[in-house]
């Protein structure tokens, strides 16, 4: 995979601002995409977070393969993270975030009271890569449109304080990627799920990776969705041709319209038309 510029200049500024403000926080709320808990975990953010109490929120849980998610929960809890499975779209477990934060900060709250100090609110920073659902989550928490929301990466452009309730405040931050992906599969996983813009990586390479991944881990889904009986016996192009045929993505002369097929497959993946999927299987065996 060729080196691609996917780290816009404003992300350097965002990282610097996060580093400056994190000292003021009681804790951190770190969102990852439940479909790719490793690939959507920004290592630069982890360096900044350090030993700050952190609640790791596995968002979009409705889209993810729960068996794989459970392995990741076990893995991250062994690393010292607190975890919670959520869905910022329908509100699943969102109402538990504040109560979990008080549990996590219980000792700190008790120490403050013992010293005669008032601890009347939780102040936290919410972090995550672009398009992981931070703005949608905040809107669900406050039950109104508090931030801009979109289905494209990079909607939130600056930090802003959001008052969830009289005792809970969150500092929303722009989604931040990192300058270079050491493992090219991370870039592909982010591209498949839409965490980075569709023109960041060559679409044909992204789709070929997706097909091979589905062949390895979810062959039955390809059969169920597109009627492909002998998935393991076909190469990537043959599978693309089959999808093009059954979905009518054919141009004059009977040739496959591959650009349309790319869009069809990625849309089906992102809209759960192939069922709940996870794209970080290999790392989950760590």
Automatic annotation (TrEMBL):
Required for a late step of 50S ribosomal subunit assembly. Has GTPase activity. Keywords: Cytoplasm, GTP-binding, Hydrolase, Nucleotide-binding, RNA-binding. Residues 12-179 form the CP-type G domain. It is found in: Cytoplasm. NCBIfam families: GTPase_YlqF. This is Ribosome biogenesis GTPase A. The keyword Iron does not apply. The lineage of its organism: Bacteria, Bacillati, Mycoplasmatota, Mollicutes, Acholeplasmatales. CDD domains: YlqF. It comes from Acholeplasma laidlawii (strain PG-8A). GTP binds at residues 59-62, 87-88, 131-136, 175. One of its GO terms (biological process) is translation. Signal peptide: none annotated. One of its GO terms (cellular component) is cytoplasm. InterPro entries: G_CP_dom, GTP-bd, GTP-bd_ortho_bundle_sf, GTP-bd_ribosome_bgen, GTPase_MTG1, P-loop_NTPase. One of its GO terms (molecular function) is RNA binding. Belongs to the TRAFAC class YlqF/YawG GTPase family. MTG1 subfamily. Its main location: cytoplasm.
């Amino acid at each position: 995979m060729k080196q691609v510029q996917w780290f816009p200049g404003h992300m350097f500024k965002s990282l610097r601002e996060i580093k400056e403000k994190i000292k003021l926080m009681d804790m951190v709320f770190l969102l990852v995409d439940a479909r790719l808990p490793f690939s959507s975990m920004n290592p630069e953010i982890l360096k900044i977070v350090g030993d700050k109490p952190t609640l790791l929120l596995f968002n979009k849980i409705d889209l993810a393969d729960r068996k794989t998610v459970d392995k990741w929960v076990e893995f991250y809890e062994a690393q010292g993270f607190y975890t919670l499975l959520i869905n910022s779209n329908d509100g699943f477990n969102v109402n538990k975030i504040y109560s979990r934060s008080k549990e996590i900060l219980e000792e700190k709250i008790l120490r403050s009271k013992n010293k005669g100090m008032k601890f009347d609110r939780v102040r936290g920073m919410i972090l995550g890569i672009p398009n992981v659902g931070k703005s949608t989550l905040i809107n669900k928490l406050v039950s109104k449109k508090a931030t801009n929301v979109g289905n494209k990466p990079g909607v939130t452009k600056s930090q802003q304080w959001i008052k969830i309730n009289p005792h809970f405040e969150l500092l929303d931050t722009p989604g931040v990627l990192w300058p270079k992906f050491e493992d090219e599969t991370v870039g592909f996983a982010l591209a498949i799920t839409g965490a980075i813009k569709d023109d960041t990586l060559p679409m044909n390479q992204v789709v070929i990776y997706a097909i091979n991944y589905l062949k390895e881990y979810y062959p039955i889904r390809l059969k169920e969705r597109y009627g492909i009986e002998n998935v393991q016996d076909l190469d990537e192009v043959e599978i693309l041709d089959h999808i093009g045929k059954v979905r009518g993505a054919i141009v004059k002369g009977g040739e496959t319209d591959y650009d349309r097929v790319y869009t069809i497959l990625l849309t089906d993946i992102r809209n759960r038309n192939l069922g709940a999927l996870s794209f970080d299987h290999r790392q989950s065996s760590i």
